[in-house]
Every structure is written in C-alpha cells, then in structure tokens.
Amino acid sequence: WEARVWEPTEGSRLKATVVQEAPITALTVAPDEESFDTASEENTARIWERGTGQEGLRVIHQKPVSALTFSPDGASVATAGDDGMVSTWETKTGPELAHHAEPDGASSFRFSGDGRVVATMIEDRGTLWEPTTGIPIVLPGSKEDMHFALTDDLGLAAAADGETAMVWDVK
Question: Rounded to an integer, what distance in angstroms lies between the CA atom of residue 81 and that of residue 26?
C-alpha cells in the first residue's frame, strides 16, 4: 500500500512515495505542509517528510489506527485506534502527551483553532477533551448523544437529536 505526494498547482508527483505493509486508513497534512501523517491497519500512525518520504515518527496502537489529525501549530498529532484509545503525541520526538479512552473507537476528530480542545466523534455522540491531559471537558446542558463542532475562534456548537442546538464559549 502506497501514499504518494503530488504538487497541487502543477499536478506533478514529488519524490515522496511511502509504502506500508497494510492498508492506509487515513492521511493528513501538517499545517506547514512539510510533512504528512498516515494511519494504517498495521496498528501504526507515521509522520513522513514531504519532500523525501523519509519516516520521522511512528506511534503504535494495539489495533488498527482509524483517524488522525495535526494540532493547528503542528507540534502534536492526535491518533484514534480501534483499541479504544485516542492519544496525542509530540510530533518531533514522539512521547505520548495524553490519552483518552473511547471504548467504541473514534470515527473522526479535530483540534480547536488554538489547540486547547479536541472534539471526538464516536458514531452517535461527541466528546470534548483536553489534549495534554486527556481529561474530558463537560459542558453544562450537553447530552451524551450530541454532535460537536468546533470553530476556529473556539465558539462551540452542538446539536442533539436534530431538535436542540446549543452554543458555548469555551475560551
């Protein structure tokens, strides 16, 4: 399984082609566009150098990695595995910063614009948590089955059951 890097304005392929031993399940590009991250069914997430395809960081879960995202400043990356763990990692040297248990796994997630909050979507509910401690953030009036969306200015909107909409200022 391969991931190839293309120059978007010219459509030409760059040197970076990365090969993994199992299917690639997700891919994201760092904010500075100098590296990219792949997740795979081989239980890993890897950060690659864009120009050369050289592997920089490899993190391992107990089961396949299903989702990943860079923080807005690119200093950390969050990974979600089918093992029920969502973790944040320092991108240059790799220590795990925090982890948050999501027993049902996470289908998608993203950092807030300033990187202080992570919103995790798990099928029919959303969870907010602090990426350096893994501590959940509970919002007054929120319900377990709400879908969360973070805006870059950290105004937070949540909708439940298609009937209720709530907005919090989490700055």
Answer: 11
Q: How far apart are CA 40 and CA 23, in angstroms?
A: 6
Half-sphere exposure of 29 (CA within 13 A, CB side): 12
- Could you write out the DSSP letters of every residue in 22-35? S-EEEEEE-TTSSE
Q: Which residues pair with 4 in a beta bridge?
A: 17
Q: In what order do the strands lie in the sheet with 164-169?
A: 146-150, 155-160, 164-169
Rounded Cα gap, residues 167 and 171, in angstroms? 12
What length is written for the chain? 171
Per-residue pLDDT tens digits for 23-78: 888 888 899 988 989 999 999 999 988 878 888 899 999 999 988 999 999 999 99
Q: 70: which strand partners? A: 77
d(CA 60, CA 56): 14
pTM: 0.80
User: Model confidence over 8-27: pLDDT tens digits?
Assistant: 777 776 666 677 788 888 88
Question: Reduced to 3 states, what is the DSSP secondary structure of residue 104?
Answer: coil
